[in-house]
Amino acid sequence: MKNILYFVVAVIGVLLAVPSILVLIHTEPEAVSEKPASMQKASTAAISPTGKQEKPITFPIKVLRVETGKVESIPLEQYVAGVVAGEMPAEFEVEALKAQALAARTYITLRIAKKDFSDVPKQGHVTDTIKHQVYLDDKQRRARWGSTYDWKNERIVRAVQETAGQILTYENQPINATFFSTSNGYTENAEDYWGSKIPYLRSVKVPWDTASPRYETTVTIPIEQVEKRLKTKLAIPTGGGPSSWQKVLSRTVGQRVKEIKIGDKTYTGRSVRELLDLNSSHFTLSIEKKNVVVHTLGYGHGVGMSQWGANGMAKEGKKAEEIVAYFYKGVQIQNAEKWLK
After folding, report:
1. Rounded to an integer, what distance in angstroms lies between the CA atom of residue 292 and that of residue 312?
2. Which residue has the higher pLDDT, 244 or 112?
3. In Å, what is the CA distance from 11 to each residue of 16, 17, 19, 194?
4. Residue 106: which of 83, 127, 123, 86 has the closest Cα?
5. Which of these, 32, 54, 35, lies nearest to 43 by C-alpha position?
6. Domain residue spans in the chain?
7. What is the helix (H) or strand (E) element at residue 72, kind and residue range?
8. Residues with Cβ < 8 Å from 280, sequence gap 6 or more?
9. How far apart are CA 93 and CA 96, in angstroms?
10. Distance of alpha carbon 118 from alpha carbon 64, whole angstroms
11. What pTM was estimated for this model as a whole?
12. Whose CA is closest to 105, among 46, 186, 35, 52?
């Protein structure tokens, strides 16, 4: 009888212990400080849209390093890694980093295909600044990232490896893969900012960008500086009544200022943005004492891929191919090799 009793007690003990054992088995360790949860092992090569494994392209990109004044010859994929590191936060989702790699590789491929490097001295293809694409070499990345270098660089390398050799094309030609930091909730039609219609650069909604620290900004500029930069006089009433010193005349499809009258002159939103050095051409103006208060939404020109939008899409589970297809309408993914000659 005692043996039966001991057996029953043992069985009950095992049953009570099973849930605890299962919890221990399925409980994951806490994430390392600053390291995103989506850290996975990198693959070593890209897979093309046709399913064929791609080999890295070693075509040399001649980069004018502005700080030293020297031109360095950098293999294509190494250059793309440096651009992704310089242009997008390494903390972003890997699929967003992959979308950035596609855009960066497309940008330089288009320049090589056109063979027009007249804006780069010393026979370079491109500079390492925002004039073209920001490029950071390994030493610069180590200095910028410090103790977080290893995992950040691993993410960048993975994004480049998994898109190796791939670019974005429209009607079998490399596209002008423009990108920017943060939208105002929409991207722009190309013609509304640059004046020329481009079929794949169309306005789309970007609801994810409210997460960006640069989504909203307010700056104050002394009235005399605004008048000097815009070369106009602001007709500001002294009695506190309604003012006619500025009026928005029209807006773009992307909700930014298209035309605005300030003082006795009419400007494009883009020109005001550039003359006053604003974050965006989506802005409102008001007067406080002797200052013009400028409130902006977004950061950048607004045409092409929003980087914060790309990250928001990636957080929702979208792949790089879906992200670029959303921001660049009607594009395909092809191998860059035939244009790099």
Report:
1. 33
2. 112
3. 9, 10, 14, 76
4. 83
5. 54
6. 60-177+304-339, 178-303
7. strand 70-75
8. 184, 256, 273, 296, 297, 298, 299, 300, 302
9. 5
10. 13
11. 0.83
12. 46
Q: What angle do CA 156, 144, 182 make, to 5 degrees?
A: 65
In this structure, the number of other CB atoms found within 10 A of the CB of residue 36 comes to 15
DSSP track, 108-139: HHHHHHHT--TTSSTT-SEESSTTS-----HH
Look at residue 324 in the predicted model and tell me its pLDDT: 98
pLDDT higher than threshold 80 for residue 152 = yes
For residues 182-210, give the mean pLDDT: 97
Over residues 32-59, the pLDDT tens digits come to 334 554 444 444 445 444 444 556 788 9
Q: How many residues does the chain have?
A: 341
- Cβ atoms of 138 and 79 within 8 Å: the answer is no
Average confidence (pLDDT) over 204-211: 98
- The lowest-confidence range among 77-81, 94-98, 120-124, 274-278 is 120-124
